[in-house]
Known about the structure:
512 residues; mainly alpha; two-stranded antiparallel ribbon
Amino acid sequence: MQLLFRDQTPNFTSKKPRQVVPGSCSSSRINVPPPPKTQFRAEPEITDISWPVATISPGLSESIETQATCFFFRNYVWEDSQSSRGFFDYLPRIFGRNETMGSALMDAVMSLGMVGLSNTKHASEIMIPAAEKYHLALRATNSALRDVEQAKADQTLITVMLLGLYETNTCDTPRSMRSWTQHISGAVQLLHLRGKEQLQTRIGHQLFVQLRSQAVSHPKPVKQNPINLTPPGKVINSLQRRVRIPENFVEWSKHALEYETDEEANASTLCGLIMKFCNLRASMNSFHDYRNSSTIVSSALALDAEFADWAIHCPLQYVYNTVTVSERSESIFSDYYHIYSDIWIATTWNHYRSIRILLHEILLVQLLHLCQSSPSPTPSAFFDGDPSLPYEAQIRFSKAVLVQLTQDICASVPFYLDDHNPDRQDGAAKATNPQAHPPRAAGGNLLLWPLFVAACTDVVSDVMRTWVVGRLEKIAEVMGIRQAKVLGYLLSIRKDPPTSPALVQEIDADLW
């Protein structure tokens, strides 16, 4: 069953590198707009939000619908120590408006909560009502899409995003990842239908920024083995489809800056750099497109300098603490981990790391080709005339950057999974505080792709890749996000590729 979307969006066609090793963040401020110059348009009056999940501790006496709603709000809406903002923190404002709550949105919320209960409590019988609620939400959404005004409504877009999240949390096979991309594709089409006017309200702006991040920041790793480890080719994000970012998306992102604080604008600035990377990627048939290697290397180096500059000049809110540990543990990969001001700052950093990983993988592939094809390289052709930067030096630097970026993604994991909390470090600590809640599922959803990209990088060791697989399995087990288990399985295949050609073909067929 698929959403009845029809894409009416027209087809769009649309310095010298600074050698900065990532991983540090200065307290100096980036050149972004000061607090918002433009105020959001007034929204409908908010009534008293007497939503029961704010106070209910679900138990056996509560209905499955109430327990499911509580699970969803705790994991995706209400703030906690990790975040001053929930994943869907605008939902209480939707519930508090003087408007009728659509059945599609309510059913989508309950279906997600039921999936979480089923997966975390290993109660497969709950998946039956979860699937029923999902299909009810899907049918109601398809009905809403037949009316232009309903299709443009906030509730409709939120419902489509929740349906996509349902697919992530119920994903059992690589093939089932297609459903997630179909929902995100439909949601992006709704963004186009809603137009620039959606940015004039706080909720509309939040929806645009959240979906923009999903549309451009789930990258496709470079693979040199015969097994494709990424979702199918017909995916929404421009990195995987190798298409240029639509010009109106870029225009709206610039317009959105008028409503953003320094912290928000800094994330939008990064998204602008990611869009540049998407366009660079779109200019290549593949990472191994050698038709114009010198130009690609030159463009990639210039863009990498912009990424490095972004990292150095972030606002103070983006500064994170690095904690050194004296004893190794299963929850921490190296001898340090990071503490961020909230989960959104951590996610912005991981977007930066993931895309810069891909950028340096492009550089490595192209530079290695140039080394092999040009016995007497002339690096001045793309290094702005600086003879001190030969191919080999840049290759060494790119490998060092990749190692640092992958380690920093791993260092962010304890914060997402709340493993830096002493109450969750070991069984003894848990025994002293049995009421300690598990980490929020939203953190696991945000961590999936950065972890996957880091572990797909050729420079990482099998030790790191095995550790990442273990963290993904924890996300699947504790947070109830099944796609994490699929990604872990794919990484395991990548680490130890099957030797049977028939098995390789079977895996490729399942992915595509």
